Amino acid sequence: MSPPGSRPAHPRDTIARGPALAAPVSVDAAATGGAAGRPREPLPTTTPANQEATAAAPAAGIKARVQDFSFYYGPFQAVKNVSIGFAERAVTALIGPSGCGKTTLLRCFNRMHDLYPDTRYEGKIVLNPSGINIVDRRISPIEMRMRISMVFQKPNPFPKSIFENVAYGLRLRGVRSRRELADRVETALKGAALWGEVSDRLRKPAFALSGGQQQRLCIARALAVEPEIVLFDEPTSALDPIATSKIEELIHELRSRVTIIIVTHNMQQAARVSDFTAFMYLGEMVEVGRTDMMFQNPARPLTEQYISGRFG
Amino acid sequence: MNAISQQPGIASNAAVRASAAPVRQRSAIAGAMEKLIEFGLLLAALFSVAITAGIVFVLVSEAAPFFRTVPIGEFLTARLWTPLFAEPRYGIMPLLAGTLMTTGIALAVAMPVGTILAIWLSEFAPARVREIVKPVLEMLSAVPTVVFGYFAVMSVTPLLQKIDSDIPAFNMLSAGLVMGVMIVPYISSLSEDAMRSVPMLLREGSYAMGAGRLKTAIRVVFPAALSGIGAAYTLAVARAVGETMIVAIAAGQQPSLTVNPLDSAATITAFIVQVSLGDLPHGTIGYKSIFAAGFTLFVLTLGFNLVGAWLRRRFRQAY
Asked: I want to staple A291 with a disulfide (CB 3.0 to 4.6 A). Which of A140, A168, A277, B149 is the partner?
């Protein structure tokens, strides 16, 4: 296994190049509206996330609840005492400048950090309805990964055929019947809007596909195992605009079927695909709310500055 | 090449103008140097090509008169190789069989052991253990092959004879086993490099699907590295086919067409050594026979390399 240094975009590398603000902005100061001298109206739909915030509308269920959660790379605290709920069957976008901890938080959901030494979770991420704490070290990370799928920044199909890529997770879960495999692979490829393009060449190597197709294949792979949550880590950052819009459409369609958490650098993307948005800054959760409200009328000056492109 | 653009820290136009003349001069010298270096590199490249061509030329030109005396058909089909006898026969088959048998035994040892070692080193061993084990393994290939040969005769053969006392003192099994040990590091080291260069992203993809370490290693990392692992196998085969001292010492020097690994037999390389050590007059047919044998060896290795190159292309993964 590679040393942890090979991990892409390590927060420690990027944090120094963070937003060019004069001083670290105190979230609490921002919350009172004093820091930027901007009067703050009470907004019931967007919540400053200093205590407990929920991305969910009251009616919707909470699929996962992050509670007083911190994460450490060695001595460096990348996620700082975050609390947030993720609505069931909805898309929640995590936004924020590079190094703000959004990808780090995302990778806690399937315990990816367990692959690297010297990492530490603190607090809870409760998965409903079972109430299991995802980051409890006594719980096998494999069990969590069986229930929570992930789509990565760059398409990473396995060196196998298109069919075997999608069947990979199913085989790991003990599906042996050829018929069932074929059915579920087809369903997953249809769900990822890829079936029409590959149905006649399922046995061809996945590397022969274009980048956008590879990413949709990875989405099919993630969907095939019928996960409870799908994590998207900047899924379009390596794709061209047309492939990007296909993936965005797909994510938008998927939200009626599965809980989605997506990390994105692209504010327009967050606005287009997500129901809820959570804004993180320097490891802290600044603001959480309905996407439309947050983009029209953010509760905090810092959020407003970020989404209007003044830093990050 | 624009030398000015390569000079950092030029502050103003005046400075540029002031330094323009020496820069132009320098760029002329740099241009000449560039040409010189290019020529040097070309020379180095041509040198290795010329040596290879020279080897092929010597092999072919010395083997050609041999084949004028001995028809190629007889060379390939006759079942005896006795070029030094009063009634000489020139059938390459016994030597070829010896070479293929010892190579086969060596690969049967080295491929599984080397591959498993590579998977363990790349995917399971803690970094500190790997940093010790890998160089130690590589030292194995620095041991002179004569030492391996005597190890086969003095240690491995007696061990085999303990199991079955009828085993002759010189046999292909012993030579093949020791040769296998010798080429393990070629396979393990190169395969490990290939597997470690598989991007972490691919492993993470597999782990994220719920796979464990072993499944990730076998089902994702191994196939992704197959092209590099194939290169390792090819090199190991070439090394085993061309290996001389171990087989000359431990397998015996009696050419015999046999499929029993416990028999003693000569390989192509062992024969070449044997003849070139003797006092065969230059220009005799017996002397020429070593070039015919060498040419066969060359064709054999070339064949393996071509197959290896084809396999590598076939399994190359673009991640």
From this structure: A277
Mean pLDDT of B141-161: 91
Is residue B113, in this structure, part of any structural domain at all?
A: yes
Closest residue, chain A, to B124 (C-alpha): A1
| Nearest CB to B212; choose among A142, A168, A221 | A142
B-chain CB neighbours of A222 within 8 Å are 208-209
Q: What three-state secondary structure class fits A277?
A: strand
| Least Cα separation, residue B112 to chain A (angstroms) | 21
Other CB atoms within a 10 A radius of the CB of residue B87 amount to 6
Q: Would you call B93 an interface residue with chain A, using a CB distance cutoff of 8 Å?
A: no
Instruction: Give the whole-angstrom CA distance, residue A220 versus residue A56.
Output: 26
Domain assignment present for residue B72? The answer is: no
- How far B122 CA sits from the closest chain A CA (Å)? 6
Question: Which residues does chain A have within 8 Å of residue B195's beta carbon, measured at their own beta carbons?
Answer: none
CA-nearest residue to B227 within chain A is: A159
**Does a structural domain hold residue B241?**
yes
Please tell me the distance in Å from B120's CA to the nearest CA on chain A.
10
CATH code at position B90? 1.10.3720.10
pLDDT value at position A126? 93
Task: Answer whether B210 touches A (CB < 8 Å).
Answer: yes
Domain housing B138: 78-315
Residue ranges of B 221-240 with Cβ closer than 8 A to chain A: 223-224, 226
Contact present, B182 and B105 (Cβ < 8 Å): no
pLDDT in tens, A193-207: 999 999 999 999 999
For chain B, give the mean pLDDT: 86
Contact residues, chain B, for A154 at CB < 8 Å: 201
Cα dihedral B195/B201/B202/B206 (nearest 10): 120
pLDDT at A33: 34
For chain B, what is the radius of gyration of the CA atoms? Answer: 27
A27, pLDDT greater than 60: no
Residues 192-211 of A with CB under 8 A from B: 207
Q: Model-level pTM greater than 0.80?
A: no
Per cent of chain B over pLDDT 70 is 91
- pLDDT, tens digit, for every residue of B57-109? 999 998 888 888 888 888 888 888 887 777 788 888 889 999 999 999 999 99
Tell me the DSSP string of A133-201: ETT-TTS-HHHHHHHEEEE-SS----SSBHHHHHHHHHHHTT---HHHHHHHHHHHHHHTT-HHHHTT-
Characterize the bridge pairing of strands A62-73 and A119-127. Answer: antiparallel
Task: Note whether A207 contacts B319, CB cutoff 8 Å.
Answer: yes
Cα nearest neighbour of A109 on chain B: B208
Q: Is the peptide bond before A129 cis (omega within 30 degrees of 0)?
A: yes
Residue B143 has pLDDT above 80, yes or no: yes
Tell whether B18 is covered by a domain. Answer: no
Residues of A in contact with B127 (CB under 8 A): 3
CA-to-CA distance for B228 and B218, rounded, in angstroms?
A: 15
- A96 in Cβ contact with A281 (< 8 Å): yes
CB contacts of B202 in chain A (<8 Å) are 156, 158-159
pLDDT for B205 beyond 90: yes
Number of domains forming the structure of chain B: 1
